[in-house]
Amino acid sequence: MILQNIASSLMICFLLLLLLPRNGISARAPTVQQIRSRHGTREVIVDNGIIRVSFSSPQGLITSIKYKGIDNVLNPHVRNRGYWDITWQGENIRGLDGIEGTNFRIITQNEEQVEISFSRKWKGGSKHIPLNIDKRYIIRTNTSGIYAYGVFERLSEWPEVEMGQVRIVFKLNTDRFRYMVVADDRQRQMPTDNDRDIHRGHAKALAYKEAVQLIRPDDLRFKNQVDDKYQYSCEVKDNKVHGWISTKSHVGFWLISPSGEYRSGGPSKQELTSHVGPTAITSFTSGHYVGRDMETRFKTGEAWKKVFGPVFIYLNSDSTSKNPRHSLWEDAKRQTEEEVEAWPYDFVESSDFPSRQERGTVTGRLLVNDRYILLNSLFLTPAQSAYIGLAPPGEAGSWQKNTKGYQFWTQTNETGYFTIDNVRPGTYNLYGWVPVNVAAGSQISLDRVVFEPPRNGPTLWEIGVPDRTAREYFVPEPYKDKMNPLYLNHTDKFRQYGLWQRYTELYPNHDLVYTIGVSNYSQDWFYAHVTRNIHDSTYAPTTWQIVFQLPYVNRRGSYTLQLALASAARANLQVRFNSEYSRPLFSTGNIGRDNAIARHGIHGVYRLYTINVPGRLLRTGTNTIYLRQAKATGPFEGLMYDYILDNGIIRVSFSSPQGLITSIKYKGIENILNPHVRTRGYWDITWQGENIRGLDGIEGTNFRIITQNEEQVEISFSRKWNGGSKHIPLNIDKRYIIRTNTSGIYAYGVFERLSEWPEVEMGQVRIVFKLNTDRFRYMVVADDRQRQMPTDNDRDIHRGHAKALAYKEAVQLIRPDDLRFKNQVDDKYQYSCEVKDNKVHGWISTKSHVGFWLISPSGEYRSGGPSKQELTSHVGPTAITSFTSGHYVGRDMETRFKTGEAWKKVFGPVFIYLNSDSTSKNPRHSLWEDAKRQTEEEVEAWPYDFVESSDFPSRQERGTVTGRLLVNDRFLTPAQSAYIGLAPPGEAGSWQKNTKGYQFWTQTNETGYFTIDNVRPGTYNLYGWVPGFIGDFQYQNRVNVAAGSQISLDRVVFEPPRNGPTLWEIGVPDRTAREYFVPEPYKDKMNPLYLNHTDKFRQYGLWQRYTELYPNHDLVYTIGVSNYSQDWFYAHVTRNNRDSTYVPTTWQIVFQLPYVNRRGSYTLQLALASAARANLQVRFNSEDSRPLFSTGNIGRDNAIARHGIHGVYRLYTINVPGRLLRTGTNTIYLRQAKATGPFEGLMYDYIRLEAPSRA
């Protein structure tokens, strides 16, 4: 009873710990205090136990944020350190309004949160902008941050006014915060405000006040660098989180914008983020990169109201990390994802902020009809990755300058489908040009929306890429004495200072001339059409020429010049044909205040001009277009060009009738696959018959088109077994499906055996792709398992490039082509993955910005259940989908067919997915994120409704099984997060080695409920296991699933093995050895991916460390003294005698018993996570006695060599007579008796000693 009470108390403590915030600080319901400071000012203090925030009252300035022992995260030396402000202009007045409140209110205060208000009503006069403003702040229980939003209102009778920039600003503690982060590849140690002081001679003024050159910085690393806040601008769509890190305190300060609805100018609008100060800003609206067109102009009689925010001011800490910059930034991104997922927040009290239920959704599909590109095509083309959004009604493109309303944007998927959710009620245009009314709770489907891009005829030539930026054009190198090192060798190299000045140096005697068919826009078209610096401070217009050939001219016809501008700053572009000094055919007039040239942007406001060109102005032969930028009063007048381009999706070639994939053409790459090997996209199978063992490449002998229509093509490459020993005795039908508007290939196989065929063993079945070695070098298996990879050539031991290690798959790289890989170990087993986590993996070509992915949308056709480990991708570059194999199990996973046994199974479909992102600054991230998104879509679409084989049942032909799993371990509790599944009938746990049938697995929720859907008709057992408990669950009755059946099992109860109360235990019953001590790798034989990684067990050679750690005696573990995470080696291995001989090892568990029931029966529960050619012997209190228990020879998991942390789970319940135990000190001897090499051994999951039952 005492032990039971202790266990209950521990469980309560554990649950209470789960309720604590991640920061580990004592959290509580937030409190509000109103006090008067020592200076006589009034303050409001809100404290939730994690952070304490002080506000001036009633002004509503944030004066202090106390967090993690830092008394004030903000700068205590300035008055305004956490504040809102707004620029505005009225009649004869232009001002900056600090928006200080005049009234303080507590809106709500409860156990969940505090929301407070600092408001101000306009009462006339010119001191403040004529708006009613209510600044709100929310601090929630268990939340490490502050939610901030503002309600801005104007009454119709108030005077005309122009509202400029609206923002929230934080000036941080200068002694703490020096490291700034805007994006994965835009982060750096920053100079200080003092370094920018030109009056003290610390810095030198440059062409405009925001930019300075650092002459005498405190940190000499910054000497001669340029600092300019505009170098850290960011587009709204990418500007979800930015901030600062204190490396001294291991604390981060972040501004998170979970939505773009309240920001102006659409997804491509650029805003300031963080900059020297240290300063962090959230801008809701501003004229940056647009100009005065972004000012909000209110006319007399115009009423208006808008909610800006909420935004989340997030603080985090990590006192234990060796790399706090990385861990804090990753956590900030994770928190951002949580905030985005929670939007719109359900805790905002303002009635002006509609809840999710009060909002609507708009869905549809955007198609492009460009008739000259699609000539002779049967289909419209989907608008892939298009930005599509709802914004206030106006002309096409008016959203770029809209500030008064809300905007809701998304991107289409590869097939053009889009969903715009959480839309505020209102009337919008869908850009482009579809009027839409959204009501609360509405679900609007627009079906197909067709965009017809401007085009009057077929393309004769083109310059650039139509992406609304000038990113693809030539950006020169920066001046060495005026650069920002962050942007050296960076995709955003245009953010360097002074690049506009390089034009005159590059073209000293004449302006740019671009010849179609000869010039290359990435090298020969300057990124900005700027003025020419004559001398000193005088500038002249510039005229660029485009020279092109026309073999024939229709002089009576009308040609069209499509001229797309990415930016314009006080420019006037004049266009002439074949005469530089004639009257312009076209002039833009004076356009633009984007200022992108000076402010290191690569675009501003997009403008498109469709210019009619009479045929009489053109010539047969050579023609010249003169583009003159006629404004030239300074260095920053000019513009940036965009333009036109088009391409297709994929083209796949197969050998016939073999069915090998020989070529995949995609995004201009002639072959994604390796053209230098014959088998580059193929199936294979290992097998063994009587006196024969072989590898069958499964080459077909018959080709058929199964279906061909507007939606898809399905083709078959099949082979029937006609006797003989050349091939495995199976009929095999390999199928491939390519669908309209789909960037990939679906592949599946139907494998069949007739009953009269001979006995055979089937081993590994897989699909393999060997990729283009010149393109693919970056491999991705998971978020935290991705890296640049060595090459196959680097592994060549015969040429001395690599050194052989303990087994053939592992080599040490001695002379790699890339010296970064020198001495690293490469082994394909380091990238294995459990089936439940192995839904997508693949490769990225950073050169081509293309990804190649293998997606497995279901585990039903894979063998061994959800915890079975399989190979994924590895050096080659190679990508594999394994359907069944012996990896981490051994020969027990071979599929053995006896005479008289018929069988059929469908493997797949799997999806071979290709994606691209030519515009991303970080294609590794964007392509991987897109691959994960596509995987979610494939999982959602399973089982596919387009598969033609009658052996693949549709969703309607499948069944569903539901129920609730409870655990009875003295008490009845819900089985939380348990794995539960249907698999072919057998003993408990037999699913681990089952290969012939299908398996369907899921996890229970927190209350033990589960749903297993899309189950093929058949007879199954219900199996499972529960983390935290030993043993395998098996439901007592078989489950018969019929087509369309809905089976409810109500409550099923798992009684985990137990004979008495726990005396002591070692480990965690999770079927792995993950919790035990894993040593550090050898420095000269490591894989850097797994340094400081949760999967550190994947390093090579860790088994060898046992002998070094225990040179004189084997492991001794003392209950109550030792700690299994430090003192229990992860694998019970053999001892190396240093001469390639090995001896068994005997581990000891020493424990105390204050009393022994010598007539009673104790129980040792021994759960193994893995076994490889092992024999475990168990003895009590006598090392040399006859074993009380022996496993016998067990296991072929090979997890020790193959960097696994588990293989097949085994549980042994060992009866221990009380007479073998002693009052006082006892010792259990665990001897692993097999020792012919380094890899015999086992891994423990969990060990528990139970007292005799009290029943």
List the helices and strands and how they pair.
Blueprint: H1 2-19, E1 31-36, E2 42-47, E3 51-56, E4 62-67, E5 82-90, E6 93-97, E7 103-109, E8 113-120, E9 132-140, E10 145-154, E11 161-171, E12 179-183, E13 186-189, E14 203-205, E15 212-214, E16 226-227, E17 234-235, E18 241-246, E19 251-256, E20 270-271, E21 274-275, E22 279-285, E23 296-298, E24 304-317, H2 324-342, E25 360-368, E26 381-382, E27 387-391, E28 408-411, E29 417-423, E30 426-431, E31 434-438, E32 443-451, H3 502-506, E33 513-515, H4 521-524, E34 529-530, E35 532-535, E36 538-540, E37 542-550, E38 558-571, E39 573-577, E40 586-587, E41 591-593, E42 607-614, E43 621-629, E44 638-642, E45 650-654, E46 661-666, E47 681-689, E48 692-696, E49 702-708, E50 712-719, E51 731-739, E52 744-753, E53 760-770, E54 778-782, E55 785-788, E56 802-804, E57 811-813, E58 825-826, E59 833-834, E60 840-845, E61 850-855, E62 869-870, E63 873-874, E64 878-884, E65 895-897, E66 903-916, H5 923-941, E67 959-968, E68 972-974, E69 979-983, E70 1000-1003, E71 1009-1015, E72 1018-1025, E73 1033-1034, E74 1039-1041, E75 1046-1054, ...
Parallel strand pairs: 25-32, 33-37, 67-75, 77-81
Antiparallel strand pairs: 1-2, 2-3, 3-4, 5-6, 5-11, 7-8, 8-9, 9-10, 10-24, 11-22, 11-23, 12-13, 12-18, 14-15, 15-16, 17-20, 18-19, 19-24, 21-22, 25-26, 25-29, 27-28, 27-30, 30-31, 34-44, 35-36, 37-43, 38-41, 38-42, 38-44, 39-40, 39-43, 45-46, 47-48, 47-53, 49-50, 50-51, 51-52, 52-66, 53-64, ...
